[in-house]
Predict the structure.
Amino acid sequence: MGFIDPPTRHLFFTGKGGVGKTSLSTAAALTLADAGRQVLLVSTDAASNLDEMLGIELRNTPVPVPGAPGLSVLNIDPSQAAESYRLRVLAQMGARASAEELATVREQLSGACTTEIASFDEFSSLLAGGAEPWDHVVFDTAPTGHTLRLLSLPKAWTGFLDGNDRGASCLGPHSGLKMQEARFKAALEALSDATKTTVILVTRPDQGAIAEAARTSDELHALGLHNQRLVVNGVFHASERTDAVACAIEAWGQQALDAMPASLRALPQDRVPLRAFDTVGLPALRALLTAGAGPATSPPTPVPAPDEQLAGLDVLADELAADGHGLIMVMGKGGVGKTTVAAALALGLVQRGKTVHLSTTDPAAHLAGTLSADVPGLHVSRIDPKVETQRYIDKIMAARSPGLDAAGQALLLEDLQSPCTEEVAVFHAFSRIVSDARSAFVVLDTAPTGHSMLLMDATGAYHRQMTREFEGRATARVVTPLMRLQDAAYTKIILVTLPEATPVSQAAALQEDLRRARIEPYAWVLNKSVLAAGTRDPLLAARLAGERKQMERMAQGVAKRIFTLAWLTVPPIGQVELSKLVARRVQPSAAHA
């Protein structure tokens, strides 16, 4: 594969959720290690599935991978990174700091902003010389929106620090940020150096994934990251020409490739075929980038499909409409079809006579392209980080400026121009949308899991702050966004997954994270089920045994309530196709592996 022949020291794999970044980055790292290189594989995704893929426990420090000499893996865990950052800042205050001062600073450093900058601090250290023992550092990044935010931070923080001698208030003391200024500049230089860093844009033969790769490429060029390559993963060619499902998958993919934007087509390109095996375990990962049928395995033991006939999205829409109003949050790993499910459910509620606000917290914002039409009774919006940040700055300046002189106003504006302000602004916008569900339906298409959990962390931090401030006061009961999310009568959480081992495991992990916050998911949606669609193609049929196992796993206790959406021969894009998903029952049909 051209993207590792020859490799630069830093390899960044990025792209839309679900395109195979983790599989390809891990396979690339393994290939380099097998060639005798010392390789560090780093995940910047808070919802990483590297642990399941490699069969090891991920840590915030490098862990050698058994069976792969020369390969170590590290996960930048946001919570651990934030705690390490807090301890470093507190240590700088010295023994003279009072207990009250230490408590105040720790409180300042308890928000989502600190989590972001701490994760970035870990990330930048690897670019700025902190990974010297390794020949190559391979980054398996979070889905595009979150990754673009991460890659923009070296430039953002370097520019902010150049004109700020005080440090940002949201990060606590001046030294907590300024001490890293040289590191941030070194990280920016490494990212911009084509001899050191390659960005591998991963996509699938899918219209949405290719469009996002093109947008990402343009934004990376604007950030100064010009050494880019394109990898098209999961290219499928039907071998059973009478199989309507297989032929539709191939045709859909070819149409997307034919329509690839010229700017993306101009990049050096590699294509990886769709494999019949899950990329879990070293044998499968080694086979991913090599020609052949895949790792040697014993013939799969047939697993019966669950006895229960799974209901379709039409049944789910009926249930949701019965409540009259409320918040419906569609969550899951990147690439599982959250936007499709959210848009379909919103249309289903409109069909049932409801007024609906459909919005997204995803920085990559796919809603407009998925819906592609104005629908009476449906208001579509987006929490745009840039727009919300400016709105928040304007609001704070208007509220506080009257009591400040010109110098004070200038200092306040400087502080608000910190990159941290974006996190605060997005949370405030999220809170407004959550409260809108008191009198109408709000369907929220969330960002991929890792980014959404950071938003949930901010929600929890705000809840703790409010309960402390109002504790003991004889006032009306305070209702925070977290309390609304915990209210099962107010909020319905829909977890979307694919019928594959890793997406199901990640959805189960997300469910446990939500439960720890006392938020109980309402239902799961199993999307893109080839088993439900039916196929005779040998390659697709080889994948069906694994799909049956995942359906059985879900039905036996992982998910309380399951709805299914078959793989569709026509892309679910636009009002007409999306409406079909909620206007008729989608029944699983018999299929044979």
